[in-house]
Amino acid sequence: MDDLSFNATLAWRRDISASIEGYSKGYMEFIAKALTERRTVRSALRLLKDAGFKPIEEYEKNGERIKPGDSVYSVKAGKALLAFRIIDSLDKGFNMVAAHIDSPRLDLKPRPLKEKAGLALLKTHYYGGIKKYQWLNIPLALVGTVVLENGDKIDINIGTEPGDPVFVISDLLPHLDNRKGDFREVFKGKDLNALAASIPLGSGDKENSIKLAFLKSLNEKYGLKEEDLFSADLQFVPAIQPREIGIDRSMIGAYGQDDRICAYTAITALINANKLSRSAGVLLLDKEEIGSDGNTGAKSYFWMNALMRIARLMDMNDPWENVLLAMEKSSMLSGDVAAAINPMFEDAHDPENAPRLGHGIVLIKYTGRGGKGGTSEASAEFVARVRRVLNSGDIVWQTGTLGEVDRGGGGTVAKFFAEKGMDVIDAGPPLLGMHSPFEIASKADLYETYRAYKAFLEMPNEAL
C-alpha cells in the first residue's frame, strides 16, 4: 500500500555524489562571475560558443541558410539571450526552458553622487523585492557598464577581486536606534546610500571636495566624468564569494541564485542534450523581478523576432504565422526557483505543499496571489506529460506552492508564454533565503534540475 502515497525522495540517497560534486564545481565558478545580467549573458555565451553555437547575424551576413543540426543564438542589448538547436522545421513545435537572469540589487541613481557630513555617498534605487535591512553593513561591489557619448563601453568592477576596496551602507548603532514598527516602514529606500570616499581633494577647502576626489579617482581609473554615470547600468551587489555550506558541504550559498541557477542548468542541459527529437531552445530573460517589461523582458518581442529570423533563414513561408502556430505545438518549462520550507519559519508555509531542500526539482502548477491572481495554471494533461518524462528518467522531483494561502505569493514568466498558446509549467530548485544577498541551494537539487531540463528538452514528440 505504500506505493499509493506520494513522498518526495531525498536526492542525496542516490549513488551519484561524484556527479553532483563535479557539476556543482562548474556552477560555483559560473555564479561567482554572473553578478549582473550582462555578465550572465557573457558567461552563457562562452559556454555556447565552446559548444559550437553561432550567432544568427552570422548567417544573415553571409547569406547562409539555417538547417537541421545547426546551433544558433541571438543576444538582445547584452542582457537577454535566445539559444536554439535546430532539429527540424519550427512549425513542428519545439521544447524550451526559459529563465530570468536579473536579481534583486541596488541600482545607482542617474545622479548618484553626493557629499554629506564629510563623506562621499552613492545614492541607490533598489531593484526588485528586497528586505532593505539585509543590505546594511555588508560589503558591496560596484559592478556594471558605462556607455560613453561616443558609444564606447567601459566595464566597472570594484569590489569583487581580492584586495579590492568595497562599499557599505552603514546602519545606525543599537544604542541610538529607537525606531519602532514594521521593518518595511522602518527601513527606507531613500536611506540606502553607500559610503564611497572620505579623503578630500587638495586642502579640502572647496565645497564638495570629497565628491570631487571620488570623481578624480573614477576618472584616473576609468576615464569617466560625472555626466557619464547617467548612461550607465551600475549596480551594487554583495561582495561575497559563493561558499559551500554545512560540514558536509551539501549546500551552496551565493548571491543571485534566483534565478541564475536556472540559467546555468538550462544552458548546460541544452548543450549536453544528445537525444533531441525536435528543435529545442533556452531563453534567458531580463526584468522578471520588476514585471518583465522593457525590450529585454518576457513581454517584449525580441525572442519572437529571433524565432522569425530563424524561420526566415530556414526558407519557411510567412515566418510570423509559422512561429505563432508553432507555439501552439510547443512546450516550456518556466525555470524559476521555489521557496523551500524554512525550519525557523514553518508557519509561513503549507507544510504539505512546501518544497524541501535536497528533494529535487520543484514543479509548481500555479503561482499568483490570493485567489490565484496573475497566474497561468498548467493543465492537468501537461503536468501528467512532465511527470512521465521525469519519472521515466528517474529524476527526483517534488511539488510546491509559494507559501500559505493569503500569506503572500508571486509570479514568474510562465503566463507570458501561456498567453501565446504554449504549454508551460514552473520548474526549478528550491532556495532558502530567496531575494537575500546570500541565497542557499542544495547541490543535489542543482543537479536534479539540470537532469530534468535535459530530459525535458529531449522529450520525444509522442510524449506531447
From TrEMBL:
Enzyme class: hydrolase
EC number: 3.4.11.-
Pfam families to which the protein is assigned, alphabetical: Peptidase_M18
Keywords for this protein: Aminopeptidase, Hydrolase, Metal-binding, Metalloprotease, Protease, Zinc
Cofactor(s) the protein requires to work: Zn(2+)
Spans through the membrane: none
GO cellular component: cytoplasm
This protein's record includes keyword Protease: yes
Gene Ontology molecular function terms on file: aminopeptidase activity; metallopeptidase activity; zinc ion binding
GO BP: proteolysis
Family under the similarity heading: Belongs to the peptidase M18 family.
Protein's name according to its UniProt entry: M18 family aminopeptidase
Origin organism lineage: Bacteria, Thermotogati, Thermotogota, Thermotogae, Kosmotogales
